Amino acid sequence: MPTSTQQPAPPLPEPLRVPVADSHTHLDMQDPSVGEAVAAAASVGVTTLVQVGCDLERSRWAAETAAAFPSVHAAVALHPNEAPRVGDRASLDAALAEIEKLAALPQVLAVGETGLDYFRTGEEGVAAQQHSFRAHIAIAKQLGRALVIHDRDAHEDVLRILDEEGAPERTVFHCYSGDAAMARHCAARGWYMSFAGNVTFKNAQPLRDALAVAPAELVLVETDAPFLTPAPYRGRPNAPYLVPVTLRAMAETKGMSEDALAEHVAANTARAFGY
Ligand SMILES: [Zn+2]
Ligand SMILES: [Zn+2]
């Protein structure tokens, strides 16, 4: 994972006229306080945040933060890279039982980020990730929560396991990284695709091709901050207040006005997470 740098934070962008949500952020990994991050985002029309926990402790923190800030909702899970680190199968199952308890809290709207990450994962890690992914799918369905998927270099297995288990009614691919063919596959199943700052990168034409074919009714925007700062601010710290930069680039790719895309994104995010 890229680390945040000491470079100065990018300036506040021009505010959105139609407010939207950052569908995926990690406030616990950003320098400003939650109050500062929420206020900066709201000042440019990013009025709702989904705070994502990646291990048990951070999931607890996400739930506490969502309880304390009305505009913050929580998602809880063991990240796919965390699943193999928990220990043996019994420890993993014990941690999953704790995630299930957190997921039942009213301010927790989603189970995730879960899924598969084959970027630097050996065979044993893959087995733990797949077990964990299946368990998260079951929790989301049992509790009627949205499922937030992290899919890195694992498209085929993610799609296969979702079909084997049966995806929850509301399923979100965070930091969507598939191509246009996969976007059509997701669209046919009614799965949401959340685009992050990397859609603005010069070398990301395949991602823009995917966004171009994704139905406007299924598109979300996110920062995944502190990671994936959008162009032209690459290398500087990312934060929810930079959503307008990515959304404007997305509107251009889709040939839509900024307001029209923002209206879709606002409604889609509320529908996907159920708020
Ligand atoms: Zn992720
Ligand atoms: Zn994330």
From TrEMBL:
Please name the taxonomic classification of the source. Bacteria, Bacillati, Actinomycetota, Actinomycetes, Kitasatosporales
Give a yes or no for keyword Methyltransferase in this entry.
no
Pfam families found in the cross-reference section: TatD_DNase
Q: Which UniProt keywords apply?
A: Hydrolase, Metal-binding
Name by which UniProt lists this protein:
TatD family hydrolase
GO MF annotation terms: hydrolase activity
**What species does this protein belong to?**
Streptomyces ovatisporus
Give the EC number(s) under which this enzyme is classified. Answer: 3.1.-.-
Q: What class of enzyme is it?
A: hydrolase
SUPFAM superfamilies according to UniProt: Metallo-dependent hydrolases (SSF51556)
Matching entries from InterPro entries are given as: Metal_Hydrolase, TatD-like, TatD/YcfH-like
